[in-house]
Amino acid sequence: MYSVFVESKAFKGLTRVAQHKLVTGVLKNEIRDMHGLSITTKLMAAYF
User: Fold this and answer.
1) Which pTM was predicted?
2) What Pfam families does this protein's entry cite (predicted)?
């Protein structure tokens, strides 16, 4: 199983689904053949 954790100010105002779509869009070539991928996203603390 693969796991990705991304913390970014770019997530401000986005739903969790939109955050995950943003991450998968950026990593689409790298994760194309991965199965069992877990994505965790977090808004940077300074941007709450």
Assistant:
1) 0.82
2) BolA
Counted domains in the chain: 1
pLDDT in tens, 1-48: 899 999 999 999 999 999 999 999 999 999 998 889 999 999 998 655
**Residues, the chain:** 48
Domain interval for residue 33: 2-47
- Write the burial class of residue 11 (CB in 10 Å: 0-12 exposed, 13-18 middle, 19+ buried): buried
* 2-8 and 37-43 beta bridge pairing: parallel
